[in-house]
Known about the structure:
- The strands form two sheets. An eleven-stranded mixed β-sheet has the order 1-7-6-5-4-8-2-9-10-3-11, sandwiched between helices.
- A hairpin with a 2-residue loop joins strand 13 and strand 14 (about 400-405).
- Helix 6 (about 205-220) runs parallel beside helix 7 (about 255-275).
- Mean pLDDT is about 90; it is low at about 1-50 and about 470-475.
- By secondary structure, the chain is α/β, with parallel strands linked by helices.
- It has helices at about 15-30, 30-40, 80-85, 100-105, 140-145, 205-220, 255-275, 315-320, 345-350, 370-375, 440-455, 470-475, and strands at about 1-5, 55-60, 90-95, 150-155, 175-180, 190-195, 195-200, 225-230, 280-290, 320-325, 335-340, 380-385, 390-395, 400-405, 415-425.
- The protein has a single domain, classed as Alkaline Phosphatase, subunit A (3-Layer(aba) Sandwich).
Amino acid sequence: MTTLHFTTEIAGVSRAVMSTVLAALVACCASQATSVARANEPAAPAGQARPPSFVILFADDLGYGDLGCYGHPTIRTPHLDRMAGEGMRLTQFYSAAPVCTPSRAALLPGRLPIRSGMSGGTPRRVLYPNSPGGLPASEITLAELLKERGYKTACIGKWHLGCLREHLPMRHGFDEWFGIPYSNDMKPTPLMRGEQVLEEPAVQETLTRRYTEEAVRFIEQNRAAPFLLYLAYTFPHVPLFASDEFRGRSPRGLYGDVVEELDASVGRILQALRDTGLADNTLVVFTSDNGPWLVKKLDGGSAGLLREGKGSTWEGGMRVPGIFWWPGKIRPAVRLDVASTLDLLPTLARLAGASVPTDRVLDGMDISRLLLEGAPLADRPFFYYHESDLFAVRKGPWKIHTMTQVTYREKTPTRHDPPLLFHLERDPSEQFNVAADHPDVVADLLQEMERHRQTVEPVPCQLEPRDDEASRWLRQR
């Protein structure tokens, strides 16, 4: 084990129970003001000895069509298929960005990355090993909110929110971290525990197995207290690596081997929750950071019937698998409601009885009633950013594009005036532009975009290279 040295400071509740509880609350309210006040107070679901634990499983570059339960014909994912069958599978679930760094910078604080400077209009769309920037300390992460409620917190896997010491997971509310600081195609690729380097380069064939072992250990050691486990898998980001146990097994080839090993990892983690008696009080979420890296051909995944993939604001770039599992609380269902990773912070905070920040814009909403009661979500706008530019917006079934660009094949964006309009529930592949038939819808969505722009305040871009001591040190590594 070697120490990383730095020249400078771097680095559920049934419906019957819910109805009873709600009726009791209403009966106890002495006035309308008191009722409103209580309704706004965060509270964990009734009937639990302690707040629920949470496990977020975040794949890297996994496409919408890469799992059996989302239609892949040859990649075998029995554990994720069972998870989806026992829980809620959302067919219109989104990551908040089409590439790695901004998607993570959206999930943990529940804010679009444009608000924190974690998306930009430079050649660098993500952080690199010599990037001095990172998630600003002013951002309040889900881990920080839950620690205030006595949660144990762990980050396992790929971080990619800054590799200076002040940006690492322990500075953003995590008690421990085991993983790599950025994407596995960036060199050097160290495997770290906390702020120490365990090996460099990381032995990537063993990463999924070791991440799984760390996750199981964390669950077993924290069975007596509520916890947040954020496991951000390294794969199936290219280059692909699978262990000897899985290599050569899948009819889909190496990409299938990698995804099937991820599926086995999910199976082991869910079994650990069952074995420790924690499954009935743990919400598990499985999703991906963005769509498949299509230019990698057979080494990249599939967006199914969706258009394009990673790096674009077409549906294939940002619509991803979304599976929610909580035995006894979430009833098996397939839902068409539109939700995103931005909703995780307000939802999990509500379930934990934590208060969300009120001094900043949050871009998600609490979807706990959808999960626990099957209550439908109201239509609301969802915004598609390409770097620092707002390219598209969806509300209800409608989506307009004012600009489009397939980043890995097109050097500049194409502007659309009038915008392109698609009905995503009838045309999820975005093949038939119906803008001429629905000018009122186009006008409404353009107004949504303008209203949203008024909420975005300029902040320093964290992806910009800097010519300072920390940056020079990083370039010399």
